[in-house]
Every structure is written in C-alpha cells, then in structure tokens.
C-alpha cells in the first residue's frame, strides 16, 4: 500500500483529484449488483430484503458485503459459506452484465471533461474486482487514460473500503501527494468513510444510488449532492477559498 500522504487544511488547498465511485455514482446499472447480491444470498436459504442488503453492503468489496449482510441475523457464518455465496454472486453478475445495458449516470462524461479543463485528475474506484470494473468501463465506452485518468478496484489493494488504500493508490497513480487536495464522492456511507479515513479535503455523498440522503448524512459528509453537476460548484468554492 502506498505511504499515507500529507494532510493539510482543506480550506486552503485546491482540489487536484476527484475519486469517483462507480455503480450508483458514475455508472447507472439499475442497481443490478445489489439485486444480485440479494439473489445469491437468498438462494442459499435466506430471506433478506433489498433494503437490508443495501444498508449493510453498499459500497463494500462484494465478499465483505455478503459477510456483513449474513451477520444481520445475529449468527456466525463460516467462511466457506460466504465464499460459496460469493462465487454464485460472481456467476450471476457476469450473466446479468452480459445482457444488461449499462450507461453512465447522467452527465458523468461532461463532469469528467469539466474537471479536466480545470486541471483536475479523475479516477474511478470501486468495490468490484478489476475484471468486473473493466467490463463496465468498456460497456460505457470510457477509456482509461482519456475520459478518466485511472481505475482502482478492490482487487488492487490489500484492504477495501472503508480503509483508505484505494484512494492512496489513486493518488499514487496521478502523482497527487496531499490528501487534502482530493475529493471523494460516492453513493454510500462507506464511500464517505473511505474519504474521511484518507483525510480527503472533501468526502461527499450523492443520492443517485444505493442510499438515501438521510442515510448518507449519518456519516457526516462534507456535503450531500443530488446530481454530479453539483460537484463543480463545490470544487470551485474550494478553489476560490484559496485565492
């Protein structure tokens, strides 16, 4: 894992990098991942609701999401059961993505271009493994190194969210050294907590995906926005504060 970057006050640091979550934030895949998590878990003999799955599992590396959903019943579940459900989930998700029309969240490419015009780097990060994430990026038509500067996945690091490892790797890949110059945005509480644990200048929630505004606010984000376009104003406000 890259060394922990320096930390300064976000009030006096311009944003140099925005790290975006994928599903529910920049990618619109009709919430298929959490629907599939629920299908795989309940196929093993459980009856968890979609709300329970999203509340316990949103934003996490997917075997951890399964582990945390199962823990809701108050009993200890063996790791071989978790891994069997995870294998079934991966099979079901691959089938779903083969036929699903995956599109970007409204205006995502425009926001990437707008940030790049300001000299700000753009990185995608995700609780998916790399093959799944790359399949999504390809389906949408984005190219790493063009629309986005880098892609960081849960399988690229030792510890997934809410650990800061993925953000630290995103910083290393884009040569950004100060965590206070980074903004993290995602549609789940664990995205916000990941940004906070990395000491990002902004840790933002967005209501286009897994969790509601009231749920996101429980993690004390810098702000909760309702559309990706709202991000530009926040970035500009941070930049103006440094002048």
TrEMBL record:
**Any GO BP annotation:** DNA repair
Native organism is Rhodopirellula baltica (strain DSM 10527 / NCIMB 13988 / SH1)
Q: What's the protein name?
A: Probable phosphatase
List the Gene3D superfamilies hit by this protein, alphabetically.
HAD superfamily/HAD-like, Putative phosphatase, domain 2
**Single GO cellular component annotation?**
cytosol
The source's superkingdom equals: Bacteria
A GO term, aspect molecular function: phosphoglycolate phosphatase activity
């Amino acid at each position: 894992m890259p060394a922990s970057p320096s930390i300064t006050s976000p009030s006096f640091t311009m944003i140099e990098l925005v790290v975006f979550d994928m599903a529910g934030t920049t990618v619109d895949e009709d919430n298929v991942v959490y629907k599939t998590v629920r299908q795989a878990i309940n196929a093993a003999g459980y009856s968890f609701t979609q709300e329970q799955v999203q509340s316990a599992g949103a934003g996490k590396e997917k075997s951890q999401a399964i582990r945390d959903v199962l823990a809701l019943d108050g009993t200890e579940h063996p790791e071989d059961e978790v891994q069997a459900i995870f294998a079934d989930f991966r099979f079901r998700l691959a089938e779903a993505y083969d036929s699903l029309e995956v599109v970007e969240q409204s205006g995502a490419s425009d926001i990437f271009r707008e940030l790049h015009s300001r000299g700000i780097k753009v990185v995608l990060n995700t609780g998916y493994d790399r093959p799944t994430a790359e399949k999504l990026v390809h389906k949408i038509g984005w190219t790493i190194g063009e629309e986005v500067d880098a892609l960081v996945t849960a399988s690229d690091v030792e510890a997934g969210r809410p650990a800061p490892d993925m953000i630290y790797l995103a910083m290393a890949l884009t040569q950004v050294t100060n965590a206070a110059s980074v903004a993290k945005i995602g549609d789940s509480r664990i995205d916000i907590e990941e940004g906070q644990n990395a000491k990002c200048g902004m840790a933002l929630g967005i209501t286009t995906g897994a969790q509601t505004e009231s749920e996101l606010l429980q993690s004390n984000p810098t702000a909760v926005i309702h559309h990706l376009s709202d991000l530009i104003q926040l970035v500009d406000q941070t930049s103006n504060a440094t002048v």
